[in-house]
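Subject: Sanity check before I submit

Could someone independently write out the structure tokens for this chain? I want to compare against mine line by line before I put it in a report. The sequence has 78 residues.
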Amino acid sequence: MGGGGWYYVPKVWTPAGGWWISPKHWQRNTGIAFAVVGFAVVNLFNISASKERRPIAPYKHIPSQRWCKHAKEDDPSL
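---
Independent answer below. Compare away.
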């Protein structure tokens, strides 16, 4: 009686998946996770670049001035 045969499974938890390390559709799930994280990173980057201001002009070049929206207004030497 019951739902099939019994087999021994040790009580082990690992973040990598334990004894079943190949879950169904793992490639699709990984791709979706990367797409969501990439979308969030791109949006955060764009928001940060649009809000970046420098009230005092820097004495040397800062790489973020290449994509900063207000760089020419804040630093007349550009």
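---
OP: Matches mine. For the report I'm noting this point. Helices lie at 26-51, 71-74.
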